[in-house]
Amino acid sequence: MTNLQKLAATYALLFFTSVILGHLPGIADENGLLFGLFDLDIKDDILHGASAIWAASAALYSFYAARFYFRLFGFFYFLDSIIGLLFGAGILDFGIFISGPTTYPFMDKVFHNLPHALLGGFALMVGFLFDQRLHHQK
Predict the structure, then answer these.
(1) How far apart are CA 44 and CA 40, in angstroms?
(2) How far apart are CA 80 and CA 121, in angstroms?
(3) What is the pLDDT of the chain when averaged over all its residues?
(4) To 5 degrees, how large is the angle CA 88–CA 32–CA 95?
(5) What are the residues whose beta carbons fall under 8 Å from the beta carbon of 12, sequence distance 6 or more?
(6) Looking at the chain, which runs of residues are DSSP E strands?
(7) Could you give the number of structural domains in the chain?
(8) Contact at 8 Å (CB) between 78 and 121?
(9) Considering only CA atoms, which of 2, 117, 125 is closest in space to residue 65?
(10) Contact in structure between 93 and 44 (CB atoms under 8 Å)
(11) Which among 25, 79, 106, 109 is least buried, having the fewest CB atoms inside 10 angstroms?
(12) What is the rounded distance in angstroms from the CA atom of residue 71 to the CA atom of residue 46?
C-alpha cells in the first residue's frame, strides 16, 4: 500500500468517525450541535458515510484509485466550501437547491465551511501536487 493509499484510508477513518460522533451521547450539545458548532443531519451522515466508503475503497484498490479519489473528492468538497461561504448553504447536501441562499453572519459561514475547505483543499493538493512522490514511497 502506497502512502497515498494510506492517506485515503485515513480520510475514510475520519469520515467514519464523524458519522459515529454525531450519534454518541454527550458529544452534541443540548441543541444537537456537534461540538457546539455543526448541525449534522441524516443528509450529512449519508454524505460523510459515502465519502468514507469511497475513500476506503480507493485505498484498498490502487494508487490510481486513491489519486482519482483525492482529485475528485477535493474538487467537490472545496467547491462546496466556496459555495457555502458565499451563499450560506452548500451543494453536497443540496442545501443551496432546497433552501436557497441564507443570511447567516459571515463568521458563521466561515466556521461551518472550514472543515470542507480544509479537507477539500488538502485533498486537491495531495491529488495534484504530491501524487507522484507518494506513489514511489511504500
Answers:
(1) 6
(2) 11
(3) 87
(4) 25
(5) 52, 53, 55, 56, 59
(6) none
(7) 1
(8) yes
(9) 2
(10) yes
(11) 25
(12) 21
